């Protein structure tokens, strides 16, 4: 396979480039773990202020919560149910026959991994799940190095990961949630597609069928990459094996999109089991496209809602179409555009949108001014990085306190 980058990076690094890469690995590891230590200290402080009896899944326990208590609340409690009891064979319904919230809304890869480690080590879900999430998140941050460094260089890569690691929603990367696993798979997918390792990218896409429901934007990225490769066919003829690899990738993205809904239907005997389960989390009791953004944001912005939605869309579009984003290349640009569109199309705009947005991490490259191919055009990159890190840490305090230090509520805030 031929390595494709968006900058004139050499195929084989010189000795000093390899040394710089090793130093970058340690720098990224240190920055990421420092960020997670800050989040851990913040969570421990919030836990010390939290009455355990008001937390979901407390089961009558009293006293102050611990770090481990707070790292598996809300969706984490659903993953604990799956890890310990699996999935129901029948959808739970109320007296009117309406499907209630149930484990089928949550993909199995993370709780199955947790269950396996629990079986091997004898550890509890409360400890194993957030620890696994921390390790997977660390691996994802390290894997960002080969994804970003050929495009923007070592310093910009470190700055990008520093901002990413301190985003307001970054504590979710050490909770009993699937964001860390999904981020590891996503970075692996983007790296494989960038390097035209079609078969590996296809396998990762299939893994997403058990990990996270984001196959549609992955498919759009794959399609863009295939078209980009096809346009280069005169300079680099496409052999039959590569055509097969590209076809496998596209088919894998399609299969991934329907894999879990199909399994849910087969196990429960209801072909629309997954859709019915998803509707149980919606205020309208049905899955609607685009409309929830306007409906939900109207609670906060009233008549200004359309302007806010258009502004958010404009920020994303402007961020990725100009020369200030040229270093991202077609794959990362396509991902940001496809995933942002996917969020607006299928997600209810609510507090969970914060953590969903973490997968737009390539846009950080633009925010710190590192997206220019001409490195002389990168103005105040370090200053921007420091400002965004400070902003992220402060916002993180608000995010955690608002969404995790709460009485028992009828809806999941994160």
From TrEMBL:
Keywords for this protein: Membrane, Transmembrane, Transmembrane helix
Coiled-coil segments: none
Transmembrane annotation, as ranges: 24-47, 127-148, 175-193, 199-228, 240-260, 299-324, 331-350, 356-373, 385-404
Domain of life: Bacteria
Statement: the UniProt record of this protein carries the keyword Transmembrane: yes
Protein name as annotated: Mannosyltransferase (PIG-V)
């Amino acid at each position: 396979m031929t390595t494709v980058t968006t900058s004139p990076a050499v195929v084989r690094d010189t000795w000093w480039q390899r040394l710089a890469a090793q130093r970058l690995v340690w720098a990224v590891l240190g920055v990421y773990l420092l960020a997670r230590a800050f989040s851990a200290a913040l969570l421990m402080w919030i836990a010390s202020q939290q009455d355990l009896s008001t937390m979901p899944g407390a089961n009558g326990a009293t006293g102050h919560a611990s770090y481990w208590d707070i790292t598996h609340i809300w969706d984490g409690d659903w993953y604990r149910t799956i890890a310990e009891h699996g999935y129901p064979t029948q959808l739970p319904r109320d007296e009117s026959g309406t499907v209630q919230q149930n484990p089928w809304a949550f993909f199995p890869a993370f709780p199955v991994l947790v269950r396996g480690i629990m079986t091997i080590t004898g550890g509890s879900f409360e400890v194993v799940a957030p620890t696994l999430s921390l390790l997977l998140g660390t691996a994802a941050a390290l894997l960002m190095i080969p994804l970003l460094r050929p495009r923007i260089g070592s310093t910009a890569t470190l700055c990008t990961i520093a901002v990413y690691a301190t985003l307001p929603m970054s504590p979710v990367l050490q909770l009993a949630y699937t964001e860390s696993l999904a981020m590891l798979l996503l970075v692996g997918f983007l790296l494989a597609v960038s390097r035209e390792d079609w078969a590996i990218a296809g396998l990762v896409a299939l893994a997403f069928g058990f990990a996270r429901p984001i196959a549609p934007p992955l498919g759009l990225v794959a399609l863009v990459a295939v078209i980009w490769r096809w346009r280069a066919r005169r300079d680099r003829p496409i052999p039959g094996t590569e055509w097969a690899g590209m076809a496998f990738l596209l088919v894998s993205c399609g299969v991934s999109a329907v894999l879990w809904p199909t399994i849910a239907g087969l196990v429960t005997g209801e072909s629309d089991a997954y859709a019915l389960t998803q509707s149980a989390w919606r205020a309208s009791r049905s899955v609607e496209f685009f409309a929830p953004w306007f409906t939900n944001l109207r609670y906060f912005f009233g008549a200004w809602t359309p302007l806010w939605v258009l502004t958010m869309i404009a920020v994303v579009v402007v961020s990725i179409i100009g020369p200030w984003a040229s270093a991202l290349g077609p794959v990362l640009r396509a991902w940001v555009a496809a995933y942002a569109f996917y969020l607006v199309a299928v997600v209810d705009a609510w507090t969970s949108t914060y953590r969903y947005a973490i997968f737009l991490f390539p846009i950080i490259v633009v925010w710190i001014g590192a997206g220019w191919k001409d490195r002389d055009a990168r103005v105040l990159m370090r200053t921007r990085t420091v400002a965004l890190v400070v902003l992220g840490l402060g916002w993180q305090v608000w995010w955690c306190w608002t969404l995790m230090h709460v009485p028992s509520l009828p809806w999941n805030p994160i």
